[in-house]
Amino acid sequence: MADQQPAFGIEAPIAAVLFVVFLILIGYYSYRKRIGTSVYDFFLASRVLGYVVLGLSLYAAQYSGNSFIGYAARSYRSGFVFLMYPTFMITILPFTIILAARFIPISTARKLTSPMDFIRLRYGYEKKWMLNVLAVLTLVFLVWGTFVQFFEQAIAMGYLGEVVSAGMIPYMYMVVLFVVGVIIFTIMGGFRGTALANTIMGLMMLVGLIGVLILVTKDFGSIGDAVTTLASKKPTLISTPTSLTTIVNWFSTIFLVGAGAPLYIHILQHLLATKDPSTYKRTLFFTPYFYLLTAMSLVLIGVCGAAIIPGLGTMESERIVPLLVVKAAPVDPTARTLGLLWMLALLSATLSTAATTTIAISVTVLKEAFRAFKPKASEREIVLASRVLLALIALLAIPIVIEPRATIWRWTEIKFEGLIQAFPAIVLGLYIPWVNVKGLLSGMIVGAIVGITLSLTGYTTYQGLHAGMIGLIVNVLICLTVSRLTVKPDEVNYAKDVLSVKQTT
Amino acid sequence: MASGPAREPAKSPVFWVVWLLLILFSVPWYFPSGTYEPVVAGLPLWVLTIMIVSVLYAIFITVSAHKFWR
Asked: What sign does the CA torsion over A371, A373, A375, A379 have?
């Protein structure tokens, strides 16, 4: 990194600081106006703001620093085989449709405020201690996925800061700076007003990304040129997969991410607070194309990067997007401006995702804890305690992030392999009234043991199938079998009653 | 807001069939392995095909949200 010049002058840190201050001011304003004084209100904003903000907010939540930095890097390493990326991102949407079609009407009718409220209501027939075990286990999987999503943001920011400053801010310092920044930002209430800012930034990020792609191809040759270069130097990057294992892995990834991503706690919170299914339905006029354009652009950037800056090692390639911006910036003043704009948008999306994930985790966990130990706690007490917990959660990420040990993509796989184990409790529970706690618990426990054992014994994939997917298949099979064998008629009637909410759109 | 008997995507066989077909054809198992030829408009044909399937997939979501979900 020593031979590089910083991509931007003093304007970059000044713009970044001013920008964060601006976001905090929006948060302070919303606090003064009593918008979002509770976490529920924060998410409730989507009810007031309508489908455009809901759609953009969900888009910004699914695309953050990890995808903008790590997934382009994966394309750099794998080439066009990573065209699985647009498909798995779009697959999140039909899975969300299936979830939302039942989840939104039930949560509106029953006034649910947390994903755990749904678990406790849907499976309320069961003995209390078993219900508690199910709630805790589901929470562990949901928190795991959402927590990894948080620290992936820190890794992405670390790489971005290091490359853009030409190594003047080392990765480690950048990570610590980011985590401390998130804590201050969230405690000052900055995150509350960012729902709207975040959606605008999401849009800006998309525009900036496509702009960067156009400028990179303008300055360094077209995508066709990149294909020609790779055809002679590294044809595997543009060729079809050579093994059945890769094809199976492609399908496995589509289902892993598609079914897992709607289960992030902050995504479930969005759905919980959506007024009715038609508000979510309207978002689908534009979100599929945003998901598609973003993922496709990142794959093309990664592949072009492989032609423009070849030979980077695995961990070094994680820096490919900022490296391209740095390379284009001195050549082209438009690229410089667009690059700066794109980085501010990326900063905003990363910061807000980090803030939203930490607050969603801390409040959901604390609500469960207070329910068990201090049921009459006020919302104020919960919010206060959540600030302490979120600082702890953020700090907990530092030791993992300082030495990432795996690429952002590998962390993504691990994240979804855990998160997806909650799929039966939430999605199957919405559709199959005879799915019960005994089935869910046995499925989750055995499924998780299978997945973790495979991973720890070196089988992160088997014939291309992710360990977590094998775990999920075992999980679902056991869940359905045990439920069928143990369910009581009264239990089915209870579940039917809970699920029988008139669907209106 | 119109109320009445609900139509959900999950209850429509057409939704499931089209969805699974789109996923099936978004993976290039039907191309010869380990090749990038022919190249069309600067991109390998298989890449262009997968991109077109992805666009159809996105359109399918918009259409199905309004056709199968009422």
From this structure: negative
